[in-house]
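Cont'd.
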Amino acid sequence: MRVLIDESKCCGAGQCVMIAPRVFDQRDDGIVILLDAAPPTELHAAVREAACVCPGAAIALDEGA
Amino acid sequence: MSAELLSPLPIKRTCPYAPPAEHRRLREEQPIAKVQLPNGRIAWAVTRHEHIRAILSDPRFSSNRRDPGFPSLSHEPPPASDLKPLLLEMDPPEHGQARRAVLGEFTVQRTQALGSRIQQIVDQHIDAMLAGPKPVDLVQAFSLPVPSLVICELLGVPYADHEFFQTRSSALVNQKTPAEEIARAVGELMMYLGRLVADKAQNPTDDLLGRQIAKQRESGGVNYEDLVSMAFLLLLAGHETTANMISLSTLVLLQQPDKLAALQRDPSKTLAAVEELLRYFTIAEHALGRVAKEDVELGGVRIAAGEGVLLLANTANRDPAVFGNADELDLERGSRNHLAFGFGPHQCLGQNLARLELQIVIDTLFRRIPGLRPAVPVDELPFKDETTVYGIREFPVTW
Ligand code: HEM
């Protein structure tokens, strides 16, 4: 899995940080930071959930990678 | 469409824990349905999860609550206001800019830093309840003051002014407050916030308002009016909502003691429980609406420019396409894919703060008052059926 983020769509709700704190963090201004673009398998379910609930659709997943 | 198909909204609930059955019928049969509003206007009621998500993510729908097409379930005309638009009412690109200016104050990290203060506030109010007479109204003694004081903490209201701030902000959301007293409380709060912002501009403090002032200074000049209206919005958006969730969550957990006991055995489950309580009650659904700026085709209907959409998120949060056993309160469900905080670019800015407050309340209240119970029959409790945000007006408890 590869994770892609689009900062311009981020609304800073912080849901991804709550769900998958090893993969996502926030800058001081609230915008998402990607900590791990190729997260290990055990985190995939959490990352999928984060992508699904992201209110700005700012997280894209490439499941083939 | 023929006239007899138009359901008049709002419809009174028959069960305090569930949206009206008619909303479920709409979700099943007419997921985007024309309905008649109390002011006589026609709007679309949207009851499916996928459609509400789509609308809340679609820039062709506006949040401008002062647009005559913006749907309202209250009989009263929207307050004619010459205030500048609040964040909640803005559309892109202004909305994104305004939101990004304050976003840093609501990061997960900043929010969590408020945890120990929230715990103190909760403990102090429980101490006072335990020391006072019983039965006591949980709403006045606990549900309302706690989130109001948390907002004091967030904004940086000095301790000496907490009492003033708390009583005025509770008067605003108390249904029993006469109109002229509400007007007075609004005036006093706005004046107070104006003075507070001016004070902080003189003596910078390390809190939301202080940091906003410093930031605005760096980039040109301080806009006092904007800061006052932001502070007021945070109070409007974060006080009664959280208070109602505290009262409703307390009630439902007292009504289902096996679920409460399971939580008390394992507090690591509280956060998931909070998520489920948010879904189950979806208290702010009547605050969720939009107005179409252009014609939009969705779910087989054509929503015309200027028409309003009411997003019935409580019913959508029980959509079987998304949630199994959706009418059940399942505290271990742990799904965040609900619309209790909205969706899209306006999704609640205070959501992680609200989650933290509810988590601390649930972990503390039942532990410290083990015999807590309603002091009146539950079917006599006055639920807020006719208000924008659902809740309980008065909740006498004893122990
Ligand atoms: C359980 C409690 C809460 C609920 C159910 C709730 C619900 C909501 C909902 C549904 C929206 C979206 C409105 C829309 O899209 O039109 C919203 C927006 C907002 N909420 Fe909350 N809220 C809660 C607590 C809070 C708290 C504690 C704060 C802050 C102290 C807060 C501040 C805001 C703000 C500023 C917005 C506007 C965001 C924007 O327009 O970009 N809320 N809330």
